[in-house]
Structure prediction request, 382 residues.
Amino acid sequence: MKITKLETLRLPEFPLSVFLFVHTDEGLVGLGESTNQAGSIEAAIHTFCAPTVLGSDPTRIEHIWNALYRTANYQGCAGAELRALSALDMALWDILGKATGQPVYRLLGGKVRDCVPIYNTCGSHGGYKTGRADDEWFMQDAGSLAQDLLANGIHAMKIWPLDGLSAPMQGQHLRLTDLKRGLAPFRSIRDAVGDEMEIAVECHSCWNLPTAIRIAEALEEFNIKWLEDPILVDDPENLCALRSKVSVPILASERLFTRQQYLPLFSGRGADIVMVDLSWTGGLTEGKKIASLADAYRLPITTHNCGGPVLTKACAHFNISTINAIEQETVRAIYRTFPDLITTDIGIANGCLYLDDTPGLGVAFQDKVFARPDALRRVTSL
Prediction:
């Protein structure tokens, strides 16, 4: 079997995503996805990945990964090239599963749990939202949003009400009166549902070290699930300093690429919980290695997932087969649009994501998607 064609698909309702279809001479097609700066990733797939992988055996996943990584590393390994490699890696695992008649999670070691617990990142989804957008809702009435999520079986939510407060001083200082105002959504949740809802706090690296410490201390009374990326992760020593000074759990970071960048974070004890983005850090192949490395330090891991159905499924296969994986990020505003795109249900019910025994990743696009006049398709072939 050999790879004969790389095809990419971009859709207006997923402006950040590139969907990749890896075609083979035996008729098997593997699906992958990567996100953010979609045009750059698309270009990297066709100009960086294609010359190396066309004509190659798609089941030589480790060989292909290392060949592309060494080429990407020549000019740095954290840009569009690595995101393109991540999408390709997912697609190769999908092909291997289809070729062997096995779901990908079984090839990755088999289930260590029956389903993957999910939490809801309270975002909107462009112009395709229906009803009240979760990111507006948590700022206006976070307590009733928590009640709505609980009614749908979801017991953990992620919000970022402090981000907007960073703008006036570019994250260098936060007045006490502003901080107290930013804490209102947390108080609303606790008043409405008590401890039934776990609250994760996203910070998008908005703050400097002393302000992040002040925020962490203020959040202690709400018993938060984690404080995510409160400072930039380009200096692991700062994350280590932060964790040594606060009691709330620190999560880091989807912004790190490959196990080499995670190692200083682990060795310096800079995080309580590890997050990876499989569409950025090198796909399933590298994600499993990062998870094993984290497990050596007795750290739990979770997946960043604000993408489409392919990434969501890939994360599920990773999480259901990884012993130290604790749950999966989902955005209900996004996955509620999946029925218009794919042939099967995504598998979310009662606060969990379920997988069946469908070979590969278990996701396929409806034929009508490819015929849409607004679909952007590009092909590179032998």
